[in-house]
Queue: 2 jobs
Job 1
Amino acid sequence: QQQVKQSPQSLIVQKGGISIINCAYENTAFDYFPWYQQFPGKGPALLIAIRPDVSEKKEGRFTISFNKSAKQFSLHIMDSQPGDSATYFCAATGPGGTSYGKLTFGQGTILTVHP
Amino acid sequence: EAQVTQNPRYLITVTGKKLTVTCSQNMNHEYMSWYRQDPGLGLRQIYYSMNVEVTDKGDVPEGYKVSRKEKRNFPLILESPSPNQTSLYFCASRLREGYSYEQYFGPGTRLTVT
């Protein structure tokens, strides 16, 4: 049972373009939504996160948009750079459930930014 | 440097041969967990530990064991590995209080079971 669905599986963008990755969740108990960035041979690292009390959070070129009613959130990468080429995972967690603080991950998106 | 370390980074083994993947963190974190990463499935939690001597199952615990005898260490044990346990494994840690605290991941262990 995949509680967080992520799309697309892969994305190719030209340098300077906008990359958009979408996620949808099912569990309304989730109330913390982080995005992780993973480079080849490395573990995931926190990129940016949001709580559902705000609709948008921006950090530099990275923005999370959140739609609580639709149970959807997305990552926007503005002015995409070749150094942004990585695998991106959305995730969700919350206070409830049988595994406190467990991150439920999406399937991942492989982003390639061409120079 | 604050970090989570895993050993070995790469391991090829045969079906049924017991193995242990070690995990250690130097951030004094109470909460530690193991995930496996498979293509198209993202990362799924195997086991987690809230503190020393406190462990519990995650989403995919079958075929795995863990122990937490010291705060800094959280080894993953495969007593009789099978080919379906071929995967990329990550250990992670964070502060116990506040589930929204950042989880720090190790560099991963790529396991192949033939």
Job 2
Amino acid sequence: QQPVQSPQAVILREGEDAVINCSSSKALYSVHWYRQKHGEAPVFLMILLKGGEQKGHDKISASFNEKKQQSSLYLTASQLSYSGTYFCGTEPTYNNNDMRFGAGTRLTVKP
Amino acid sequence: KAGVTQTPRYLIKTRGQQVTLSCSPISGHRSVSWYQQTPGQGLQFLFEYFSETQRNKGNFPGRFSGRQFSNSRSEMNVSTLELGDSALYLCASTPYGTGNYGYTFGSGTRLTVV
């Protein structure tokens, strides 16, 4: 079952913050986040595991609420390079090898 | 090190034909997954292979099949092509699976069925 992402699209000015949410109706073991730029392959950003800590690098971080089966991706002080479509992928069990992706959130950062 | 390589990059086929797409994972990666990406449906899981065995399969008709070779290279085949099969087909690899690893995706094969 595919997770649900919100919002579908976001438009920001450079320096603004954004939050992208991902929720599932099933219990989750892991949540993955990817970014895809137009015409390119999705690129792995980070993985959050059940029982793990909030992760992040640079100004992009994410949290995982196991009880609510939700994850959020936080982009702070956005840069032009952050533009793209963000996907969350979820797995219900460890090494399920059957990752389901949300429909994506299109993020546009303007100067 | 080399990334995930998919060939060909573009394909145009006629309805009713069949097509074979190839994916070479990152050296040392033994798990290969395939996804179909369309504007309306997003990323849809097709199947995953590990050590030449299919471990999981998505909700696609039997016209979609795949295999993996002993060197971890994988192929997917679509028989009796339909217009709705037009999509970007992405393969992704990990060392053992997705348990604690993120996917490395290839650039994809864009299939157009006319």
